[in-house]
Each structure stands twice: as C-alpha cells, then as structure tokens.
Amino acid sequence: MTLRQLSLIKRWLRLHPRGHAVELQAWDMVLTAWLMGMLGVPVALMLDAPQWLAVCLPAYLLPEMYSAARVRLHRRGVLRCDYQELLAPRPRGTSGGPPRGRR
Q: Across all residues in the chain, what is the average pLDDT?
C-alpha cells in the first residue's frame, strides 16, 4: 500500500464522516500502529533487539492487511467498504485523484 493510497483513504473518511465514525477511528489506530512499526524497525535493529522486530514488522504491514481484510469482507457481503476503489492501482501517467473543478 502506498502513502498516496493511505492519504486518499484518510481524506475520503474525513470527507464522509456521517456513518463512518468507527471506521475513521479504526484507520487512526491502524495508522498509529503503522507509524510505530515504521519507526520501531530501525530502532530495534540499532539496539540489537530482535524481539521487537516481531512486533514492529506486523505493525508496519498492518494498513495493507487491514485494507485487504476490508475488501475481502466487502466481497463476501459481510460489510461495506465504500472506499475500495481508492485501493485499486492507477495506470501510469494518471494523477489518480478526483478531477478538479474550476475555482
């Protein structure tokens, strides 16, 4: 999962707060764990603490695992994932964002 995809999901959730309050809080927790994992891996390597890598590496991969689980549950009909189109890879040469109107 790219940083752009994470940003688009976070933006989508901020623009659609009605009915997605729990999902917004869940993504906040996922992104917090991701940041802790991302910062914890180099620290664990520098401090020669391999036991912390067992915690940091899954936390680093958590956004991708969480979004994949959401899409899978959406396909089964268990829950809705309204932002799943943001997770699809964009063709090269496209901006990937929504079209901008005139100001």
A: 79
Are 16 and 82 in contact by the 8 Å Cβ rule? The answer is yes
CA distance 86 to 6: 9
CA distances from 25 to 21, 32, 35, 36, 76 (A): 6, 11, 15, 17, 23
Name the residue with tokens 């829950």: 79
pTM value? 0.67
Per-residue model confidence (pLDDT) at position 33: 92
Percent pLDDT > 90 in the chain is 12
By the 10 Å C-beta count (0-12 exposed, 13-18 middle, 19+ buried), 41 is classed as: middle
For residue 21 the two structure tokens come to 């309050």
Q: Is 95 helix (H, G, I), strand (E, B) or coil?
A: coil
